[in-house]
Amino acid sequence: MQSQNLLSEINSLISSNISKEINARYVGFKSFEKKPEEDWFSELCFCLTTANSSAMMGIKVQGALGFEGFYNLPLKKLSNELRALGYRFYNRRAEFIIGARQHFGIKAKLGEFADDRQKRQYLAENVKGLGFKESSHFLRNTGHDNVAILDRHILRIMHEHGLINVIPKTINAKNYVQIEQILDRFLPSTGLNHSTLDLSLWYLKTGKILK
User: Fold this and answer.
1) Residues belonging to the active site
2) What pLDDT score does 151 carry?
3) Average pLDDT over residues 153-174
4) Domains with residue ranges and CATH for the chain
5) 52 pLDDT band (50/70/90 cuts)?
6) Is the pTM for the entire model greater than 0.90?
7) How far is residue 89 CA from its own chain's centroid?
8) Per-residue 3-state assignment (H helix, E strand, C coil) for the chain
9) Contact call for residues 101 and 67 (beta carbons, < 8 A)
10) Radius of gyration of the chain (CA)
């Protein structure tokens, strides 16, 4: 079975030196439990900038602006900064970042929910610019283990190994959950959680370990 081939690839990765890098990245995610609201807000804005873009671009923007830029720059200046960094949708994304400022304190707010997927629902419904994928990304990066990040790389590797028959042209909340449930069922065979599985699949597809 194709899924067995994927499992074999994951097992080989787990037994390689790359697993140390994956575990180090994972420890970084888990450290967010002790980080202040400023770091959580910066990470929220990072995830906003990855939408219709890339993690590499998001890392570039976050490194340049940090919390101070995300939280304090006025709209026009923020838009200009994004444009100067080579970000494509600089006006729209600047608007989303400005709007996200009302959610400063998101760490405490999410603490009101016991379940990771309830937290994701809240984020997707209340933070403009975050869909299920970006909300899952933010949760994973802040130490939550029970959501899948269904970006194009993960969907492609799932398709290549027969976990899904087709890659949907569009992802909505309904089919996102349906595909996530496939990974839920695959997960126990790997001995991983959604966070470390995502890092492993991403590496298998891209050769990179980002965030």
Assistant:
1) 133, 151
2) 94
3) 94
4) 2-30+148-206 (1.10.1670.10), 35-141 (1.10.340.30)
5) confident
6) yes
7) 19
8) CHHHHHHHHHHHHHCCCHHHHHHHHHHHHHHHHHCCHHHHHHHHHHHHHHCCCCHHHHHHHHHHHHHHHHHHCCHHHHHHHHHHCCCCCHHHHHHHHHHHHHHCCHHHHHCCCCCHHHHHHHHHHHCCCCCHHHHHHHHHHCCCCCCCCCCHHHHHHHHHCCCCCCCCCCCCHHHHHHHHHHHHHHHHHCCCCHHHHHHHHHHHHHCCCCC
9) no
10) 17
What confidence tens digit (pLDDT) does each residue in 112-163 have?
999 999 999 999 999 999 999 999 999 999 999 999 999 999 999 999 999 9
